[in-house]
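Internal tracking record. Fields below are filled automatically when a chain is submitted to the structure queue. Please do not edit lines marked as system-generated. If the sequence contains nonstandard residues, flag them in the REMARKS field before resubmitting.
Queue: standard
Priority: normal
Entity type: single polypeptide chain
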Amino acid sequence: PRLLSDVLAAEIKRHKLDRVVIAGDTPGYHPPPALPSFRDLFESNGGPGPDWQTEGLWQKQAGLLSASADSQRVVAKARVAESRFYVLETALRHHDGVGRFGVLAWDDGKDSKVLVGLDRKNNRAFRTLFQGRHKRERSSPLPDDFNWAGPHTLRIEKNGDALKVYLGPVLLDRLGGRIPADTPGQPGLFAENCSAAFDSFVVTRGWAE
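SYSTEM-GENERATED OUTPUT FOLLOWS
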């Protein structure tokens, strides 16, 4: 049988953790939760500001970052260090139009990226991987009475070449083996052929970065 210490060591290595905490009254050091590496609650009014690299029309107002897009995609990238391991969280709302909106879950700054979001026209949640000229997409149907006005929380957990996608408390998908594990990327927001808004945007980088 494997020793407990060997099992914990394997889990620490597999998940890039610095320690495993066992529930209960255990002695030793218990670290506090990690602070966000990047956080914007969109409390000011005006343009996105210096913390964002934007393409297209974006505006902050009343605690929201709003995007207006015609047929072309508009993108706002957070000015945070590129990473391989991070958690991304936002809350999103649909305002008008039949397009798609959500998060730029990973962008290598060259020709590869992952978009995760909601498709108003087809009433679906989607995950799209672009690699050069190649495109792969998976999607899930949303309920017929889905509240598009929101807000809905979208959470991305990126661990090397693996992505977990949550819409609210629901695990939508696990994506693995498609993204180069050692290639860092930059997260952000996007909208195409619609108007949408985001309540907040938080990125917490992994300890190994």
